[in-house]
């Protein structure tokens, strides 16, 4: 099975308003509540694609109960904690498709909760074909947590993908994960460069086997041991971009497990991201659009550089 780790799970609330205007009050037209946090979205997408997936991470309180109740067939090995699972709020402006995201910090994880989690992670790795470590860290979890979990996966011989930001990313990438998937902001923060190509290559030199940068409407840029590729969608789609990066992670994991060549993995990841923008919430995608988009993705190889 594919294992996804979401240490800071969330109950994702999506509010749609006609038009978001600063300093004014709004009527919400629709409210959607879903289990969230990046690894949970990855797992929901992979489950919909027919993969055998298990999610792990921390859950607690009434929000944790609501999250669990919404899992709908996604297998979970979520670990109960005393604190309450956070909420995240995405406010979607229906007129423009622009989204404003508000993410709570999450519950305080105690040292004993963290150490019990580590024991269960080691057990889960024994039946995993790949593992994804996704999202922010809740308070109390050490900043080097992902580096530790990457090393654990490598020691168990399980390929590992890392999708996080800031210092946890900086430390995690040095532990040599198989794939790292930063977005443009995360890449710039990590490398100090806003130029995607040199930044992606510089990020790879920090220790990852491959770095796949998600560049929003410009698709994906991948620096890998087999070469560097830019994968671009045929057209820009508008909708709700929340979770598009999580769907790219889902496709990259599926391609990793299948042993697909990089151009195929990237085409699939770009198409699945775009099909997610068409869905109303993160962790879901428009299945017909996914098939249609995949054929239209352009994948171009860059000349090799040191
Ligand atoms: O990528 C979208 C999303 O996964 C939302 O579902 C929301 O839960 C959030 O990101 C969590 O991100 P964070 O970086 O705060 O862990």
TrEMBL record:
GO biological process: carbohydrate catabolic process; small molecule metabolic process
One GO MF term: ATP binding
Keywords: ATP-binding, Kinase, Nucleotide-binding, Transferase
Any Pfam family the entry gives: PfkB
InterPro entries: Carboh/pur_kinase_PfkB_CS (IPR002173), PfkB_dom (IPR011611), Ribokinase-like (IPR029056), Tagatose/fructose_Pkinase (IPR017583)
Gene Ontology cellular-component annotations: cytosol
Carbohydrate kinase PfkB domain mapped to chain residues: 11-280
Transmembrane segments: none
Family: Belongs to the carbohydrate kinase PfkB family.
Protein name, entry field: 1-phosphofructokinase family hexose kinase
Originating species: Streptomyces mesophilus
């Amino acid at each position: 099975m594919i294992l996804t780790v979401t240490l800071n799970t969330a109950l994702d609330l999506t509010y749609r308003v006609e038009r978001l205007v600063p300093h004014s009050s709004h009527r919400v037209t629709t409210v959607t509540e879903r289990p969230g946090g990046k690894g949970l979205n990855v797992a929901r997408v992979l489950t919909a694609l027919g993969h055998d997936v298990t999610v792990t991470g921390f859950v607690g309180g009434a929000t944790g109960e609501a999250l669990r109740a919404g899992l709908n067939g996604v297998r979970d090995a979520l670990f109960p904690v005393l604190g309450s699972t956070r909420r995240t709020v995405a406010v979607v402006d229906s007129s423009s498709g622009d989204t404003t995201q508000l993410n709570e910090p999450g519950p305080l994880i105690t040292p004993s909760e963290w150490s019990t989690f580590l024991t269960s992670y080691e057990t889960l790795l024994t039946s995993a074909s790949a593992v994804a470590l996704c999202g922010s860290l809740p308070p109390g979890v050490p900043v080097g947590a992902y580096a530790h979990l990457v090393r654990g996966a490598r020691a168990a011989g399980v390929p590992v993908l890392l999708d996080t930001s800031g210092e946890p990313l900086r430390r995690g990438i040095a532990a040599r994960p198989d794939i790292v998937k930063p977005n443009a902001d995360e890449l710039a923060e990590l490398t100090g460069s806003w130029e995607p190509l040199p930044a992606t290559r510089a990020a790879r030199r920090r220790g990852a086997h491959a770095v796949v940068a998600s560049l929003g409407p410009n698709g994906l840029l991948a620096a890998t041991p087999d070469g560097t590729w830019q994968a671009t969608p045929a057209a820009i789609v508008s909708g709700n971009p929340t979770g598009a990066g999580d769907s790219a992670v889902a496709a990259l994991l599926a391609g990793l497990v299948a042993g697909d060549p990089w151009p195929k993995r990237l085409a699939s990841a770009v198409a699945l991201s775009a099909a997610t923008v068409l869905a109303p919430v993160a962790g879901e995608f428009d299945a017909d659009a996914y098939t249609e988009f995949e054929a239209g993705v352009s994948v171009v190889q860059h000349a090799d550089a040191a």
